[in-house]
Structures are given as C-alpha cells and as structure tokens.
Amino acid sequence: MVLGKRSDYGDAKYAGVQVPFSDDIPKTVESYGLCGFDFVVAPLVRDSWRPPAPAVPENGSLPSPLNRSDCLYINSSQWANQVVGAVSEWIQPDAADPAERQRSTAALKAQLGWAAHLGLQAVVLPPPHAPGRCPNYAGVLNQALQGLTHMALWLTVPLIIPTSGATGGVPDGADTAAAAAPAAVSPVAGVGGLDGWEAWHQVRAQCDHHNLLGAALLVGPALPSPSSLRRWAGEPVKALLLPTAVFTANKRGYPVLPKGHQELLAAFFKLGVQVVITGGACHAVPAPAAAAAAGPGSKQVTPAPAAAAAVGPGGEPLGFTVTDPGESHPLRPYWEYLCFLFRRLEVVGEQERQEASYRDYLQVPLQPLQDNLESQTYETFEKDTQKYTLYEEAVFRALKDRQAAEAAAAGPRDPLDPAYATDAPKPSTSGRPVVLMVVGAGRGPLVRASMRAAARAGAALRVYAVEKNPNAVVHIQHMLRTEGWTEHVTLVSADMRHWQAPEPADILVSELLGSFGDNELSPECLDGAQRFLAPGGISIPQSYTSFLAPVTTHKLHHDVKAYKDLEHFETPYVVRLHRHYLLAPTQPLFTFVHPNTDAPIDNARYDSLVFKRDPADGAAVLHGFAGYFECVLYKNVLLSIHPPTHSENMFSWFPIFFPMREPVYVPAGGEVGVQVWRCCASHKVWYEWALSAPVAGPIHNVNGRSYWVGL
Amino acid sequence: MVLGKRSDYGDAKYAGVQVPFSDDIPKTVESYGLCGFDFVVAPLVRDSWRPPAPAVPENGSLPSPLNRSDCLYINSSQWANQVVGAVSEWIQPDAADPAERQRSTAALKAQLGWAAHLGLQAVVLPPPHAPGRCPNYAGVLNQALQGLTHMALWLTVPLIIPTSGATGGVPDGADTAAAAAPAAVSPVAGVGGLDGWEAWHQVRAQCDHHNLLGAALLVGPALPSPSSLRRWAGEPVKALLLPTAVFTANKRGYPVLPKGHQELLAAFFKLGVQVVITGGACHAVPAPAAAAAAGPGSKQVTPAPAAAAAVGPGGEPLGFTVTDPGESHPLRPYWEYLCFLFRRLEVVGEQERQEASYRDYLQVPLQPLQDNLESQTYETFEKDTQKYTLYEEAVFRALKDRQAAEAAAAGPRDPLDPAYATDAPKPSTSGRPVVLMVVGAGRGPLVRASMRAAARAGAALRVYAVEKNPNAVVHIQHMLRTEGWTEHVTLVSADMRHWQAPEPADILVSELLGSFGDNELSPECLDGAQRFLAPGGISIPQSYTSFLAPVTTHKLHHDVKAYKDLEHFETPYVVRLHRHYLLAPTQPLFTFVHPNTDAPIDNARYDSLVFKRDPADGAAVLHGFAGYFECVLYKNVLLSIHPPTHSENMFSWFPIFFPMREPVYVPAGGEVGVQVWRCCASHKVWYEWALSAPVAGPIHNVNGRSYWVGL
Questions:
Q1: SS3 annotation, B388-428
Q2: Which residues are involved in binding S-adenosyl-L-methionine (chains A, B) (predicted)?
Q3: pTM to 2 decimals?
Q4: pLDDT confidence of A356, banded at 50, 70, 90?
C-alpha cells in the first residue's frame, strides 16, 4: 500500500519492514502487506545456517542447510517485487581468525548467489567496519557485482558509527579496528562517533562506484548536523533503515519522530528514497483507537486537513480512515506515522512537476548557431512567458531612458526646425522612431515583446527581425500579417554576423544564452552584430556571468561512464539537477559585456576558482561541476538561473554539468580547486577544465577534441 | 480511426491517404479523418513553388514562396502524428540540364529542411530513376540523412519500373536513362519492366543503409511474382502506396482488389506496414448503400462472420456499421475495403502472440555452462510443456525398447536364479531397475518427465539428478519430498564433467542444446558425461544437426551496427526473426551423435555451403545467416526449431543470427557461399564464419576474439 497517491513527487513512495526469518515467505508478505508495508526485508537463510566446511568434497555433496522450500510457494515476480533479502549479520569477511574469515566469505557468496537465483531486486548487506578496515568485504562485494545484472546491493551504513560500541552485528574484534581508524577519518561534528559516510565511501570506491551498490542509511537516535546530512543527496541512497527504537511517544503514547528526524525523512521522500521500519513495536498504543488517532505527533505537526483529497481515483484508503484487518498489527502505528509525514510534504509547483521527467537526465547542449532548431523547440521556449516579460520590461526601460535622455539633450524644441519634420510612420514623443534590431529572432517572440514595450512606452519603433533559419522566418511573416505589423517590422533572413544593415540600430535585442551563459556563442554573435549598433546604442542583454560549484551526483557520473568512452567525460551536459549536492557555494567565473569596446576583442578566458569546505560538513565526493548563469538584460532587470537569484517561474534553461573522469575524494575541510578555459579558434569555441585541488587532475577536452561549439 | 482493434497483430494498423496541396492542413486532416484515415500525405509546398535563383543575394532576401501560413494553425504534435510530407514530384536532381539539376537540388534541400523544422515523422520522396541513374539524388538524400534525428525519408519505389513509359512524375529525360539501365539489372520475371528493388538498393546502398531511409512501395496494377515480392519482408518497407486505379469493381460497383493484391496487403499488414491510398475516387459506388455493403468483394472473399467481436472494449466502430458524417466521403469505400482485408487476417496463435515483444530483438545467447541461471529463467523454460512431453515420449520408448530387448535376450527365466533376486525398491518387469541419469537437471523437469515415462512403461527407475547450480538443486530437493521420490532419485550437486558416478547409467538424459544445437556446448558436456554410460547405453538426445540459410534483415543489421564496434558484428544472436527473408532454403551444417564413439573425439568442425538463388526471384541483399537445429531425442522422436520440421507449440528456442559486417548484394540467380568453423580450445569454443560468394569476405570472429562460449 503506497504511503499516499501524490503525483507531484513522481512515483508513489513505498515503505518496507524488516522481518525475522520465516519458512513461509508468502504468509509473511501477506501479513505485513495487510498492515500497509509494500515489501519485507527478510533474512535469506536461518540465523543458524553456516556454509559447509571446505573440506567436504564437491562430488555429490548436498547443498547444505541453505535448503529451504518456500522458493516453490511464490513465483519469481513476487520474490522480485515484495521481498528484499537480508544477508546474515554474523558474516565478517574481515575477521581476524582465518577460519572465520573463510567461513564468512563463503557464506556471503552463497547468500548473494541464492538471492540472485531468486531474482530479488535487492539485498541488504551488514554494515562495513570502520572506514578502511574491511578490504576483504569490499573485495567479495566487488566480485559479486561483476556477475550481477539487475539485483542491487544495499550496504547498511550507520549515519554515525559509534566509537564506544559495536554497530549492528559487528562483534568485539571489529571495535578495536574501529577505534584504531585512520586519523584522516574525522568524527562527525557535534556527535561522538565516526562519520558513516567515510565507511560507505571506502567500500564503494573499492567497488569502483558500481551502480548496483547503494546505501541503506541506518538512522540512529542522534543525527549528524543537517549540513553534513545534505551530502547524501548526491549519493545512491536506496533506503532509510528506521529502527522503531528511534521513535519517541507523544502524549497519548503514539510513536512519533523528533523534529530533526521528520526533516530527514521529508528530504529523502522528495528524493524518492523508501523507508524500512526495523525492530519490533516498542510503543504501547491504546489498542481500540489506534487507527483513528495516529499522526498528530509532536507539537510542530498538524494533520493535513484535506486528507481524503490527496487520494487519487482508484487509490488505496489511507492510514487515517482504513478499517482493514491489518490495522491491528503492532507495527501499524509506525506505518501510519510514515503516511502522515509523506502526505504532509508541501505541494510541488506546476513548473517543477513538468520538469520531473527531466530530472538527472543528461542532454547534450543545443548548437543553434550550427543547426537550425525545429519548430517544436521554438514552441517549447516560447511557452516561457516569464522570460519574455523580463525582456519586455528591459526594452521598456531602455526606451524610457532614451526618451528621458533625448528630452534632456534637446532642450526646448523649435517646432519649425525641419530636422523634426520626419516622415516616420508614428513619431514618438522624441520625434524619430527608435531603430530596434532583434538578432536571432526565431519565430518572433522578442519582436512581440519589443512591440509591447514600445506600446507601453509610447515610443515609435522601427524593427528589424534578423533570423538565419529560413524555416523560422515563415512563422514571423505570419505573425506580422496577423498583428498588422508589416509596416513597422522588416524581416531579414540572414546571419547577423554577415548582414549589411541599412541603418544603425539604437537597441540590439537578442536571446542567445545557453545554460552557462556564453556557451551557445552569444559573445561571438553579438560581437559580429555590434557593427551596426549606433554609438551609444544599447545591447539587451548588457552583460552575463557564468557561475560554478563542485557537485556530488552519483547518478550523472554513472550515466556518463555508461558510454564507456572518453568523449562523454569531456562533454558538458544540460541537466535538471535533482539528486545532487553542492560541495560549496557557487562562485562567478566568466563575464561578457555588450557592446564590447575592447580592442582587439578577445573572448577567450581563463580563471581558477578555489572552493573551501567547512570541516564540520565532513568529507565528500566530487563528480564534477554544476554551472549556471546570471544575465543583466538592462540595468536592474536581471534574468538568472543561478540558484540564489533564479528568476521566478522561468524554465528555459536547466543547469550545465561538467563531469570529471574519475570521482575525487574531498577530505573534511578540504579545498576544491578548478581551472577553466574558454578557448576560441576560427571555426569553434570550446571549454577545457581541470582539477587543481584536492589533487591535480588531467585537463579535460584538450583542443576541444571531444566537445566544441561550431561557429 | 484504426482499421481494426486486434491485439494479435501487435500495434493496430493505420491507413493514410495522399491529398492535394492545401493551405488549411487542419481542415484537410479533419475531413479525411472523419472518413477514417489516420494521417494524410500532403505536399510540403504549392505545386508551383520553385526555389529562388541562386543569384539573389542572401542579404535580406525573403525566403521565397515556401511562404505558407498553416504552420501556425496546428501544433507540433499534430504535424508529427497526422501529416506525412510529400516532396514535389517535379524535382529531378539528376536532370541533364545543369540549371534544372541545381534548382532541383536546392528545392529538395529546402523542402526537407522545412519538413524537419515542422517535426514531421516522415516525408515521401519521389521515385528514383532507373537503378544506378540517380547518383545526385542519392547524394542529396545522404547529406540530408546526416542531419536528421528522427524524421524518416520514405523513398517511393515502384514494384515494377516500366521500361516503356515514365514512372510517377519522372519526365522524358529520365526515360532514356531508364531504358539505358545497366545490363546487370534484370527485368522482373513475367512482367515487362525493371525490378524496382534494384533502384531501391542502389539508393539505399549509397546512403550506407541509413536507418531513417525506408521504402514506400508503389503498387501497380501488375505485380511481380510472389517469390520476388517476398524479398521485401526483410527490407525497411514503411508504407504501401496503393492507387485507387489499381482497384477493380465488384458486381455492385464497389472497389475491390484482385486476389494477388489482397495477399500482398495481408502479408504487409502482418509485418506492421501501413497502407496509403493515392489518387481520387474512381469507382461509382451506389451512394445510399455505401456504408452497409462494403467489403464482400471478389468471390474468394466472405465477410468475417463475427465482425463485431473483433472490436475491443472502447474500440472505434468499424466500417461496416458506422454512421458518422465521414461515410459519405468519396474515398470511404476504399478505406472500408482496407478494414475488411485487415479484419479478415487469420487469428494469431497464443504462442506467437506471447512472442510478439521479442520480434527482431537481439539477445546474446545464454552461457549456462559458465553462469548459473536464475530461477526465473528455469521457470520460463519449464512452461514449455511440449518440450517435456517429447522428452517423456523419448524416455518411454527407450524404456520399452530395453524391456523388449531384455525379454528377448533373457529368454524364459529361472525364478531361482540368484541374479534376479535383487534388492531394488520396485523391481520392474525386467527385474533390475534401469539406471537413468539426468545431467544438467536444473530445477528438475526432466526428472519429472522421466518418472512419468517410467510409470507409463511400468519400468523401475533409479534416477541420478546431476546439477552444478547449487541454487537450482534446492528446488529439486523440494520436488522429491513433495512427490515422494526421495527413495528413487539421488540428487547430485556437481558438474557432470567431473562427477564420479557410483554405477554406470543405462540412459543419459540431457537438455543442453542452444538455438544452433551445439552452441551451448552440449557435445563437450556429454562427451564428459559418457564416461559413466554403460556399454550399449542410450543418450537422449541421440544426435542433433544445425541448419543455416542466408537472410535479409535490415532491422537486425542496423541494430548490430548501432553498437558501433566490431565485436557486435562478430557475435551470433538469439532472435525471434520476424521482418526477414531467407534468400534460399536452409541446408544442414554440423551434426553431433551421442554417445560419441570416435577416438579421439574431435568436436571441431568445418563446412562450406553454397546456396543458389532462382533467377526469377531477382537480386537481394544479404545481412547474415539464420541458424536453426533439429534434434533426434530417440529414434523417431524429433525435437526441432528448423522451420520445415518445427515441433508444434514449442517455444524454448528462437533462431540464431550470424551477422555480416557489411550487407552484400546478391545478383539475380547468384550464389551465396559461406564457410563456417566450429573451433575448440582448452577453455572455450567459438564459431568463425566468412562469405565465399558472391564475393569473398573477411573471416568473422577470428580466434574467438569477439564471441566465445566458456568451457
């Protein structure tokens, strides 16, 4: 049963429950299913099972007490969808005793083999020992991963590894190892314990960041700082393991979570991470009222008023009103509390909902200069009304400023002066119509925005719409006829870099920006077009700046790696970043100003940035860099996809992602240094990028060998 | 409106109609849509449109009368789903006059650019001139294809190119070219004209078999021979263009098709090819009865009795009973006749329906010897009851033969002879239980089949079930307990090649065959197991033979090519062949017999085959070879996936496909020669293959560098 039918968080969220060993899995699945849980995490073998000693000859030996019979009561798809296997907790592939190590290794292999045979979707693995102290465990997992095609391994990772006691089933021997962890592993700020992230990173780095290895975060009663928790947003977290012991009781005895835990769950729900309840019921809930009163837990919490409305057509009844037989299950109040938290999530905005299918999906940037865009692409961009409202405002203010300046400069006018007797179609207050050129007019949205601005400003405009795509021009022709603008707008089917304008422009309007500002060659195009800008003329935009930040994004790095070539690691991608984490705040990189008065003009750039991590945030992994831009259209009319200043409701651009060939470990309090070049040649422009800290790395995309933008 | 809601032919089939130029495309789409057609094939520009002369300066010139306005009345998805563009028929990129050639080339580029801008799904291109006489046309198409991402080009291909007159819009100049076509292009047998396939092949070969280039077959009143028509089954045919003039009239004046045309349409419907009606209505249908009486056309045709039953829930009303406003449309009787033909197709069998999603989908063969299969894979195989019925029958006959032989050899028995006082659990009529070993027992289906056969034969069996996958053995254990067979069946968790059997076997049963018979190393496994076969013992299977045939399959070749590496061209694939054509009947290749009494045993093989094409079938293209096997389980109990002898309702194996690196042209009456090696080394077995005719080609997969099966 899903926690709530809400389409705004994509897939409905599922909840699981850890159960003891059972010889009758179908019955177990059914009983917890009635209670509300969608899947069970069940041991693969009896707790007492041990693999046969290696001395037993292979010849004819029966396969040991792995022997169980439930496999025949349940079909493959049920196994795959409703059961996650749990590997025995006693397994210690890094035990000091060689015999114990051998037995653990054999048992781990046998259990993983059995789970894969059953076609399970995932298996939960015992927690690793202290960071760097489980090489054999990582080795066995790495070998197993090579043979898997779809079954995922969920490594249990305690958010905090206690330094004073054992975690989970790790016996005494391991404590010593944990206590003797390398000095590089810092304790998590504010909590007495080791950083679970470090243990996770050691294992997954040894497994070469294999995509079937994920983390099941074990949530304890104490939480690390919110800022260090945020690192997990970019990691392949598959589940939260939530012990019932972490719940507290509200006044009426119902299990509820402390505020920090509530926020943790909300954050992971939004990332699509499922929750698994572990341990038995340990809150005495008054039996008869159980189904009616769950939810309103701690004081900050009030039940969603329109609970019923959240249920979609055909949806399952929700926790608050159900009367099914499962409601008497002792774990029912915990499940209902999860429902309550899930349904309380704020509603997702329309724009974000539409973008959901693009989340963490790599797109190669457009090359509008080299290729003609399709009609549908224009159609999509034109739907971004917010962007054109900003352009209209920019043109309006520029026209107003011109009017003010002309009025001031002209002083009192002599109406008989022949200079004022122009034959402009609709003389503005300043006499001469303003010459405005839209360069890269597409299907005409900026022509429309400019005409609107002129009407508002009471200014007469003479517009030139310059567009190199002959197919797009057909649409502008139609617009001019429909709107009655044929007298005011001259249509030019030409490349702005080569066109010979018949008169100078007062205002040059363009929308040539990419996700990284200059990456679709706006600087080169506008440098070419400014030939026909009158002295003192205005370019809209006036300037733009790119921003960069180091980022953790396991998903994107894996997707790039899946291409199995260098080229894709040297290509920047347009991506709606979702499961990601910025290791530090963004910093500005390259700025371009228009018109460009430099002589000679040089659009090549080089800069290096250093990002410093707060030691309290712990170590993290770097997969590449996220890029954004801010653009000054005109004076204080800003157009931005830079998170701190992002223009509201504007969706024309997703961020850009520059990958690194190899993920890089950034120690707690460490620095990330990056160098970026914008290189220009006669027929192409490209970026090169390299890491300078915490370690120097290879320069990516040298000579634009993998990625470039054609001029 | 779909022609009929039938799930058994996969996607519902769609019908289109060619329409004249219209300035109001939405209205055109609507009017033909009411008539029943799902899409229109519409000219991209007015017939009078010509591109601007190249002398006109680019600077500011307006984009010529390509100028149309309907693009703004209809959104992108409507353009994409309901309109196929038609390129002007006057275009002749290979005209003798250089100016005309230049104008044609410019017009073709402009129209393709416009269509791509609109986001159309496909564009119909004018027919090519005689084969080999349109190099510039192919050149322009090839350049255009490089820039396309999803829009398909449908080249109009007349099935027969008339030698006495022009095809379609090709003017006089081209006739001369057609008449002077190279001698290699043979006329199609029985019809006075050139083979349209040759013209198609020339163009698509020059376009390097680009996947966005397909054929729209123009069906004339006369058809080539059925055997030459079959070549198109393996080609990327996207549509049939069916002129109304090809229809004849039945007694009541309704348009119907001759029998040969009916069969042609039926064959292409089954391949998922859509039909486009071209030309105006040219049959005088009695107006009032039009909707009620369509369909029952020529004498061979009787309307499907349960017409209404073929409509799925929520389905559109079908032609016979509709009363919508479109039924008075002059083309309505033609559309209804298409419906009639489509709905008359024979019902697809359950097995083929289940296999529909695997059609023409490349799968890398299993390596069950090297990898352990998953439970689900066993589960799927075990559903093939027909296969196990054949095995049961084979074991039954072998047991019966043993009983007969023993009875004959023993003569009258002395009941006091101590040799007969065995302690077998259930003495059979012949006294001693038969020792039967299942090698590669999996989850036990052959154990079950053998026990059944023994019960039928009244024979006592002592069974050994040998299986190397320890996870599968768990299932057999359960089966033995459930069936009460623990006393009769000994479970052996071991590799048959290394196991030391405690006694010799009378019968050795195995199912180790792959799609090509020996390709999953059945010979090597059984050679290893025959150590413990008693002298005179029986192997089930007794022998198997692989078969090969040259094949046309554009789809599979493209899918292999899409990997962009050599390795995938040197890998055989398991495929449910669908859109394919065998260039000649299959021929046997390698045979293996068990037990193998050769000394020494050598499972390496080499053979070369020559396939001769009937000159009347025309030329064809070779993409690789299709492989099958026939297996003698015991005497006349045959198990086969070889088309002429395929075991009924058996679905465990799809054919195998050996690709060629490059498609090869096979002239009419030509030969296809192929050499195949089965190579064996200590740890692997692999195939190598090469073409010897019509041209010698490189040996594929030398030293098993790309594909091998591990021992």
A1: HHHHHHHHHHHHHHHHHHHHHHHCCCCCCCHHHCCCCCCCC
A2: 378, 387-388, 467, 495-496
A3: 0.81
A4: confident
